[in-house]
Structure formats: structure tokens, C-alpha cells
């Protein structure tokens, strides 16, 4: 019998040298994450210091959990946490499903010209800054010249100062966020839909499945891994609700429903230069987000079989 040749395992260094072109292409991305993502993590120690920019990290006074205690005992802490969680839940309920629905609708378009035109139109708001979105919002909602209030007047009602009424703030924020990012976020779901084999739909049609049955038993299971991955990542940022979009529309009148942890951290960190205090706030958000991610990942693995790890 002919003896089988046993291949000698190669070392990691030999493997890297054999595929050096691929690793060289990967190197800029790795360097970027090390410099801008991992190295700054060591700066989180100032959350436990009375940081002074002239003394630096290594010579600033250690104060333990002083800044965390100051944040938790802040008189408006409950309001900040409540507003942050409520807006985050609204984003999960309304903003997260919107690109999925849009992707499903776009996937049903058979005329490629129409499909591309619609895609271009819904993608465009993503490239507008929140400053421009804020200006458009102020013009649309203005009690004097706003289009919305012009429609209100048509029905013989008094104009509404939407931006000066706290009860409308969250609706405005969520609506603006959906309009701006819905088209761009739909790209991931369209890519996932493109990865579903057409033969599955052909077999389903032969077996007599209608559009609803195809959506329920083929399309949605095909989208599930992508949906769960993005949902878990979103849950991990449960206390990140988007500083820019809120800050643009926020005013002292709407603080009761719109002031969140990020806007408070901005005021304390940038305006009052409380670097250690705002680092403690950021660390608190990261720990809470990590715990939520662990729980959500476990629940997802048990219920759907999909998880991050």
C-alpha cells in the first residue's frame, strides 16, 4: 500500500509570510483600531481621579468613586436616565424596524429604473448633516411659516409651536431620525435579501405559496441573522441615543422630556471642563451597555439560535 504523506504543520510566522499581501492590506485597519479605539481606553482611569490637564494622568489625585457618586446623586439623574431610556426604546420600536420594512418594499420592485430612483431618493437624507436637518425642522414646524402649521390653519386650528412644547420633542426626534437614516440602514437588509437563493422562491411558488407565505417562511428567516446581529449591537448602545440630533432640537423648554445623559455630559465636560466627571458618565454608560448586551445575547441564543458569540 502507498504510504500517505504527512504534512508538517507550518508556524504562524510562516503562515503570515505566505499571505503577507493580505496582512499588509489589513494592517491600516488594525493600526487605526489600536490607536483610536484601544489606546484611549487607558484614559478611562481619569474617572477615578481629580484629573488636571497640567498634572496629567500619572500625577493627578486619585479620588475613587467620587464622580460616580456625584452623578448618581445629581438631583436630575432620574430625569436624565428616564429620558435616555424612553428615547432609546422609541428608537428600537420605530427606527429599527423602519429600514427592514423599506428593504422589503424595495425588494418587491421589479422595475430596476424605478427601484434605483427610489433608492437614491431615500438614501440622500443620510448625507445631510444634523445642522441642516435641524434647519429644515425649524422651517417645517415654525408657527408662522412652517408647512405643518399651514396645514393646521387649513382646518381652522390655531398654529402649534411644536418645538416649544415638551410633549412633541420625542416625536420630532424619532421622526427626523427615521427620515434621515432609514434609507441608508436599509442597505444592509437589501444585501441580506440578495443573499437568499432565488431557487427557494421558485420552489415555494411551485408548491403554491403566495407572497405572504414566501415572506413568512423564506424572506424573514433569511433576514433573521442580520436583524438579530444589528439588534444586539443596538441593545449594547441602549444609553446612546444620538447626541447630535437631540442637541440640535433641544432648548430649555424641552429639557423635561429631551435632556438626556449625553447632552448633560456635554454641558459638564465641554462647557464646565469636568473631564473626570464626564469620563465617569461615559464609563457608566459602557458598563450598562455591556451588561444589556450580555443579557440580550443570551436571550437571543436561547430563543432564536442567533447570537454574537
Automatic annotation (TrEMBL):
Bilayer topology: Multi-pass membrane protein
GO biological process, one term: transmembrane transport
Transmembrane regions: 21-39, 85-106, 127-148, 182-201, 222-239, 275-296
Superkingdom of source: Bacteria
GO CC term, one of those recorded: plasma membrane
InterPro entries: MetI-like, MetI-like_sf, UgpAE/MalFG_permease
PROSITE patterns, per the entry: ABC_TM1 (PS50928)
Keywords: Cell membrane, Membrane, Transmembrane, Transmembrane helix, Transport
Range of residues in the leader sequence: none
UniProt main location, coarse: membrane
Family affiliation: Belongs to the binding-protein-dependent transport system permease family.
Name under which the protein is recorded: Protein lplB
Native source organism of the sequence: Paenibacillus pectinilyticus
Lineage: Bacteria, Bacillati, Bacillota, Bacilli, Bacillales
Amino acid at each position: 500500500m502507498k504510504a500517505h504523506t504527512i504534512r508538517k504543520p507550518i508556524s504562524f510566522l510562516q503562515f503570515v509570510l505566505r499571505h503577507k499581501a493580505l496582512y499588509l492590506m489589513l494592517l491600516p485597519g488594525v493600526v487605526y483600531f489600536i490607536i483610536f479605539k484601544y489606546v484611549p481606553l487607558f484614559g478611562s482611569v481619569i474617572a477615578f481621579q481629580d484629573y488636571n490637564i497640567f498634572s496629567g494622568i500619572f500625577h493627578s489625585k486619585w479620588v475613587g468613586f467620587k464622580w460616580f457618586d456625584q452623578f448618581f446623586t445629581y438631583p436630575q439623574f432620574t430625569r436624565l436616565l428616564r429620558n435616555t431610556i424612553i428615547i432609546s426604546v422609541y428608537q428600537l420600536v420605530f427606527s429599527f424596524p423602519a429600514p427592514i420594512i423599506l428593504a422589503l418594499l424595495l425588494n418587491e420592485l421589479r422595475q430596476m429604473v424605478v427601484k434605483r430612483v427610489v433608492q437614491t431618493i431615500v438614501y440622500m437624507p443620510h448625507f445631510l448633516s444634523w445642522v441642516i436637518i435641524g434647519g429644515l425642522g425649524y422651517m417645517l414646524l415654525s408657527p408662522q411659516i412652517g408647512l405643518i402649521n399651514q396645514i393646521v390653519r387649513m382646518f381652522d386650528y390655531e398654529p402649534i409651536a411644536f418645538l416649544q412644547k415638551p410633549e412633541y420633542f420625542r416625536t420630532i426626534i424619532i421622526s427626523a431620525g427615521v427620515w434621515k437614516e432609514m434609507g441608508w440602514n436599509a442597505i444592509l437588509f437589501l444585501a441580506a435579501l440578495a443573499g437568499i437563493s432565488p431557487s427557494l422562491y421558485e420552489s415555494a411558488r411551485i408548491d403554491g405559496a403566495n407572497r405572504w407565505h414566501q415572506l413568512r417562511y423564506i424572506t424573514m428567516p433569511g433576514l433573521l441573522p442580520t436583524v438579530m446581529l444589528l439588534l444586539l449591537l443596538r441593545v449594547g448602545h441602549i444609553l446612546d441615543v444620538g447626541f447630535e440630533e437631540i442637541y440640535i432640537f433641544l432648548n430649555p423648554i424641552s429639557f423635561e422630556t429631551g435632556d438626556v445623559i449625553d447632552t448633560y455630559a456635554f454641558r459638564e465636560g465641554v462647557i464646565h471642563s469636568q473631564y473626570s466627571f464626564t469620563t465617569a458618565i461615559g464609563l457608566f454608560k459602557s458598563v450598562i451597555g455591556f451588561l444589556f448586551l450580555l443579557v440580550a445575547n443570551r436571550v437571543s441564543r436561547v430563543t432564536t439560535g442567533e447570537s454574537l458569540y
